[in-house]
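Figure 3 (text version): structure tokens given as input.
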């Protein structure tokens, strides 16, 4: 259940401060000033990650899942699994693992 926001916090900014805040919001692609200020007040920072590698990993995981389902269906129908299918699946998982390692390295380097 979403908690109602009952408290109001009001503070004043100079024009340069306000302009700076708007530029930061724009750079993070945030349109809601209230959400931005709440996040900054509670956590001290806002971080927007645009990692195309994560989208690529999601696509690869989806393909692997689909392939695995097809292999399982074929195995149930024929009673056997093809060695080539197993190699293909292993190659896909190796690519995913390499991608995950790359993403983790990039995330660890964020300060």
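Below: residues designed for each position.
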């Amino acid at each position: 259940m979403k908690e109602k926001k009952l408290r109001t916090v009001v503070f004043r900014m100079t024009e340069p401060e306000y302009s700076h805040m708007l530029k930061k919001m724009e750079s993070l692609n945030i349109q809601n000033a209230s959400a931005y200020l709440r996040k900054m007040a509670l956590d001290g920072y806002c971080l927007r990650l645009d990692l195309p590698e994560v989208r690529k990993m999601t696509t690869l995981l989806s393909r692997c899942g689909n392939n695995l389902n097809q292999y399982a269906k074929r195995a149930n129908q024929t009673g056997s699994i093809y060695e080539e299918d197993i190699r293909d699946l292993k190659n896909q998982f190796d690519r995913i693992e390499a991608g995950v390692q790359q993403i983790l390295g990039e995330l660890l380097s964020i300060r």
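The chain has a mean pLDDT of 86.
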